[in-house]
């Protein structure tokens, strides 16, 4: 009997090893750039994090649906999907398979490994493996949140359980190159901080080559609690879903919709670590989340958050959609935050496609020399809130973003060269329109196309001639 069990276990491990070797993935493990501001692929090429919050991907979608979702995101340019491994301690997947025994993270419900071609015999973790490997085939990284913060806050996970569970995860996925660890899950780091440190340290101990961060509560940033932890290789923040008027939180700083301020804060911290907005306002979600009759965030808002944070020095950006993040179906009885559209329709909402234009723009010029530089904009004309202009530059180029198409007053001479070629980049469709060539000295005003109105956003590009 024991020999038979041992044989099954050996076969299971062999199948696992075969699957890992068989996964096609050319990106390799992500690394931190030499200047500690950005990500690179394993061969040193620039990696701009373009994420999507597919939070319930593992639990709600079957394999065919997961394939459809991942292929859509690949086609639109997304290269990271943020996913909860355990949304709740009683979570089951689309096939009714439970993740845990008795809702205990220290006892994952793992059965003998079976073939991915056999759609009748596999467990929760096999399904996770399948999705991770399918993402690898499409060049997509999976940012895995081990257990959502509310489960820890409620007392469902103690330090001992957290250590056992994190070791299980690290050993299971350490050989898959397309893994990123995203500790936490919509929770302040100060809440159950010993558990979060245990998970972070354990993941790092048993899987030292994958990047690790912490996903915090809205309007907070990982650096507030964990910047100096050895396991935290990069920072992220959640600028959240509230508008200017709604940001009455009792955190140290109230930034409202000015998510670029979080970047500014992290940018000054030592040691230097990459940072970005890992959860801004979602397309199609109500302002403030809970009042389903409130105005909803649009693709224009999504773009504004993206360009503001990236031009401030962010190493990427994570998009979100109300229906997609919860994989909403018309048959769901308890939709969160007033979601109505089916996820398979909402994947085509305009903001998702528009994110690819930002990624293409950032990779179209020299990458690792890019820095934020507000001195490019005449100080008195920088503006506030929706009028805010934000600038970034590399050695031979300048990008300046306006959300509402207002005039941009530029201090020239901030990059080398006697002349600059100016053009307009349209964040709504990715098109570029030439303006002309100008002397690279003094100041000059550039009037954006169209009338001044929120959502008439443009990027002014200045290239060295």
UniProtKB/TrEMBL annotation:
<keyword id="KW-0732">Signal</keyword>
<dbReference type="InterPro" id="IPR024749">
    <property type="entry name" value="Collagen-bd_put"/>
</dbReference>
<feature type="domain" description="Putative collagen-binding">
    <location>
        <begin position="371"/>
        <end position="463"/>
    </location>
</feature>
<feature type="signal peptide">
    <location>
        <begin position="1"/>
        <end position="19"/>
    </location>
</feature>
<dbReference type="Pfam" id="PF12904">
    <property type="entry name" value="Collagen_bind_2"/>
</dbReference>
<dbReference type="InterPro" id="IPR025277">
    <property type="entry name" value="Apiosidase-like_cat_dom"/>
</dbReference>
<dbReference type="Pfam" id="PF13204">
    <property type="entry name" value="Apiosidase"/>
</dbReference>
<protein>
    <submittedName>
        <fullName>Uncharacterized protein</fullName>
    </submittedName>
</protein>
<feature type="domain" description="Apiosidase-like catalytic">
    <location>
        <begin position="33"/>
        <end position="368"/>
    </location>
</feature>
<dbReference type="InterPro" id="IPR017853">
    <property type="entry name" value="GH"/>
</dbReference>
